[in-house]
Amino acid sequence: MSSPVETNENIVDEKEVVSRNFIQNIIDKDIEEGKCKKVVTRFPPEPNGYLHIGHAKSIILNSGLAKEYGGVFHLRFDDTNPTKEKVEFVDSILEDVKWICGDIDTDQIYYASGYFDTMYECAVKLIKKGKAFVCDLTPDEIREYRGTLKEPGRPSPYRERTIEENLDLFERMRAGEFEDGSKVLRAKIDMASPNINMRDPILYRVARKEHHNTGNKWCIYPMYDFAHPIEDAIEGISHSICTLEFEDHRPLYDWVVRELEFENPPKQIEFAKLYLTNVVTGKRYIKKLVEDGIVDGWDDPRLVSIAALRRRGFTPESIRNFMELSGVSKSQSSSDYAMLEYCIREDLKLKRPRMMAVLDPIKLVITNYPENEIEYLDVSNNQENEEMGTRKVPFGRELYIDREDFMIEPPRKYFRLFPGNEVRLMNAYFVTCTDYVTDEDGNVTEVHCTYDPETKSGSGFNGRKVKGTIHWVCAETAEKAEVRLYENIVDEEKGVYNEDGTINVNPNSITVLKDCYIEPALAEAESMDSFQFVRHGYFCVDSKDSSKEHMVFNRIVSLKSSYRPK
Ligand code: ATP
Ligand code: MG
Fold it and tell me: Of 2, 40, 151, 180, which has the fewest Cβ atoms less than 10 A away?
């Protein structure tokens, strides 16, 4: 089997010529050869957990192809295994897919469980063709008969049952006459096939489980490898795009649609999963972090589930750009989280206002500024995008500045405040440090300065230059806020897993700052609004814990990074 190894060229800006990925090449050819009249793709999540960034790749790829070729995109819940599926997951998946895609056509939402009748008929059809049989071997015996990669399997002793007997037994399996696990329906293909998936795979099993859609109607459920091609064929999917681990299942997929004689059978194409370097992505691992209580639910902002990325403040645009940069390929690789951070910075840079917030406050008193006076300065909302206009920012005699912007004894090249030094207060005046106050432990509690009224921003500073600019908020009008800073949930230095297989959690993955001060305009922010806090990064109002009385901001990403797109 040939595996073309092709990648999508990076899409850095629209002017560059974008090369086609290998899936687009296949579709182009199918259309050219008249094999495909209409492109229909699907995203088929199993509702057994929340979606993560890897699923976002599949959603964006599939919906993008449908759009590009003027086709249709289906969201299909692959809910054929009631053991782990829940309505909670169906709801969260719907919300996540809508968010990533902007919206979705509700007419194009499907449930595999809606096809249980058809799947049953398909199984009957295979039995009638002599292509399926009811087998009484135990699960252990089936495994043993299956053989290994080196040795062929042996036929089940039940393989030669007559069609009539098989029809009768299968009907009685459905009617609930047999214990769970006591009988299965198997395809009759080839016990000597080098591909183990073709050695009379199981099509149906008995399982008395209540299903979230069909209740107790069924006590037999189809296996994934049988159900999936039927689902695709029923919906008229033209290209069934899945990840590489299904490559070995493709011959079975093709066998099912061929034996069932579907017209225009779908074509399965595999691509490499998205992995993020040193970031926990798999549903199983995220579930473990949630169930072990290490994180605060599936939308904990430290996770890369879609719900978490949304709560953290990532945008669908940034995720789509990230997927374009990471490309579509047949070869397994891993993308850098820094690339995702780059994408969100790029997305927010010109769209979101730049505001002032002080995360670790100390007071700054301007001793020569009039008492009880507040003036309102005109401040540009985004210096790189004048269209965003200006706002009024209050300024007064007492301000808060960040603790790291003052030092009693500065090292070389420290250009911020220290006794005797002059700096610019961003958007305001030049101030010179004249004094400071400390508590009993020597911690600085107040910094005293004088200001030069001639140096108001925008009205010229009589030629004088200063090297440092620091941000501030006016103490009298500031609002308090809680700010949460995040690091990777796993410790990058020490690796993702401990020796015993548990996840190596970074103890600094969250830092909660409770006494931050924000300029008053920020207190008007609504849930999910995002901003640049100058010099600190991009922040988003937390959708769960923030309220007008107690604002909570999540840091989406800091401002600086060493990452540059290739
Ligand atoms: P996980 O690997 O996290 O357990 P899954 O594959 O079991 O996820 P499904 O609900 O079966 O989850 O996946 C739905 C679709 O998303 C499938 O088509 C699957 O191939 C695709 N998908 C899952 N993970 C990734 C990934 N990391 N990159 C790209 N596509 C993915
Ligand atoms: Mg799966």
Answer: 2
Angle at 314 between CA 311 and CA 315, to 5 degrees: 115
Contact yes or no for 542/552 (Cβ under 8 A):
yes
For the CA of 245, the closest atom of ligand 1 is 20
Model confidence pLDDT, tens digit, residues 61-79: 999 999 999 999 999 999 9
| DSSP structure string for 401-426 | EEGGGB-SSPPTT--SB-TT-EEEET
Cβ proximity of 229 and 118 under 8 Å: no
* Rounded Cα–Cα distance for residues 499 and 197 (Å): 33
Q: What is the distance between the alpha carbons of residues 6 and 394, in angstroms, rounded to a whole number? A: 56
What is the H or E stretch that residue 135 is in?
A: strand 132-135
Q: Which helix H or strand E contains 347, and what residues bound it?
A: helix 337-349
Which ligand lies nearest the alpha carbon of 246?
1
3-class secondary structure, 555? strand
Closest C-alpha to ligand 1, atom 16: 55
* Of 509, 93, 484, 96, nearest in space to 294 by CA: 509
pLDDT tens sequence across 224-248: 999 999 999 999 999 999 999 999 9
Q: Which residues are bridge partners to 366 per DSSP?
A: 449
Domain annotation for the chain: domains and CATH numbers: 35-271 (3.40.50.620), 275-348 (1.10.1160.10), 354-557 (2.40.240.10)
Query: Residue 432's pLDDT is what?
Result: 97
Which tokens is 46 given?
């199993």
Whether 479 and 522 have beta carbons less than 8 Å apart is answered as yes
Q: How far is the CA of 203 from the centre of ligand 2 (A)?
A: 17
DSSP H or E run through 144 = helix 139-146
Three-class SS of 460-504: CCCCCCCCCEECCEECCCCEEEEEEEECCCECCCCCCECCCCCEC
* Residue 13 banded pLDDT, cuts 50, 70, 90: very low
Mean pLDDT of 132-146: 97
Strands (DSSP E) along 283-409, which ranges?
354-355, 357-358, 361-366, 374-380, 390-396, 398-402
Claim: this prediction has a pTM higher than 0.90? yes
Contact 503, 285 (CB under 8 A): yes
Rg for the chain (alpha carbons), in Å? Answer: 31
Mean pLDDT over residues 103-123, rounded? Answer: 96
Q: Ligand 1: which of 21, 55, 97, 110 to mutate, most ligand atoms within 8 Å of CB?
A: 55
For residue 243, how far is its CA from the centre of ligand 2 (angstroms)?
Answer: 9
